[in-house]
Amino acid sequence: MIGFLIRAALRPATELLRSPSPTHAAVRPAYAALLAIILVFTSAARAQCVGGWIPGIGTQGTNGTIYALAVHTSGDVIAGGSFTTAGGLPASNIARYNPTTGVWSPIGAGVSGNVRAIVVLPDGDLVVGGNITSAGSTPVNNIARCNPTTGAWSALGAGLTGGTGPIVYTLLGLSNGDVIVGGVFSLAGAVAVNNIARLNPTTGAWFALGSGVTGAAPPAPSTVAALALSQTGEVYVGGNFTTAGGIAASNIARYSPATNSWSALGTGVSNIVTALTLIPGGDLFAGGNFNSAGGGAAIRVARYNPASNNWSPLGSGLNGTVWSMVTLPGGDLIIGGQFSFSGSLPLSRIARYAPGTSAWSALQSGISGNTVNALVVLPGGDLIAGGDFTATSAASASRAARYYFGPRPPVIGVQPLPVVTAPTGSATFTITATGGPGTLSYQWRRDGVPISTIENATAATPTLLLTNVQASDLGVYDCVVSTACPGGSTTSSPATLGFVQSCPADFNQDGGIDGADVSDFFAAWEAGGCG
Q: What is the pTM (predicted TM-score) of this model?
């Protein structure tokens, strides 16, 4: 299509140059049109290489809201929420997504009740929290453990109970394997707690974190809604409370597992904190539904410097509640929620913030729907967003979407297999690949040397077809699959092409039967080559 448009624009200019007396004034409009087309498509290609939403992963997605996401040690994404199907398959409020194959699958029999938080233990098991009453066929109280490989669920003692409508909102894994649990509850097992507790998943033992958090203004209950772990092992706690460990702390505080002590973060923030993340260097970012932090204006997002104990706003902030935050490998933040602007900049439900430059930017035109509740970054750097939405700027997306931030090397799903054939026979090598942006290109190679498409047009397709195979065609074949972006290429596994080994009359397979075949036959016989 691009080539057709370029040729269409070029034709008038070519015809004018061939005319007896072409003029610059006459030729200029045609070449201007050609230049405009080239610039449009070049700009589009460059835009694709910068990043964008990937169509497809959430087309079937889930049939209800996603509240929680976690990346498993296998690289799969675990999604929890309030749904009964994932990828079109039955899945009771929790499911597993393979980013490589794009396949959703249930996790055992799932759970009854909404899943609000997920954490992956060092051994690969999951701890899942929410307002759940059974996991698999096991009765539980708002928290459970699961082996995602077998789908087996188990209770964590008596779970979490007490309080007004007990529920788990957030989970955080510590370096020693323990888990900090936050939400609304007053009992952890048989231990009296206030909305936050510590679990040893190995022994099933529960521990209080001092006197926990209390003091929310009625009618809202005291709540822990967000947790984050610092590089020094301290736990940041956000939610809806006025005291933490018995000291004044306005909706955010810091807990030291080493000393079992609490401390305030300056004067805190003015309303509930629902999301926390840290950046390299140790600064903390908080999001929620507040309008001030540290006594100064900060609209729904703010930055805290532990060294100076000071808060600062993030520009104009956001015009809606923040529900999720995650830090990218380079230190930028991705923020999700129920907002549409920062100042006059459109940011539909999801945004990027650069702490180094204090700049907000959009992820294309964002997400269409109600809210983004959860965010995770895959090991390769792509972002997965979950929530209650119907589309991204790329395609429909049922509560799940994936975004890439730069050139993405293609993923080869089916590798080429070794082939044996007879002389003058045929051979076929095939691969399948996915990725983007744009249309993938293919280049087959023999022994590392590209095969000319003039000699074999299939060398630029997913299936390489060789006919009239000669001894000179034997060797090791592979395929380089590329996107339109620099650096966006992947090379397949190697596959050999060889001749069928047998003992026919033409033993040396030179196309004729003569004394050489007899000599080779007896040599193979003596060596045991013909069995």
A: 0.76
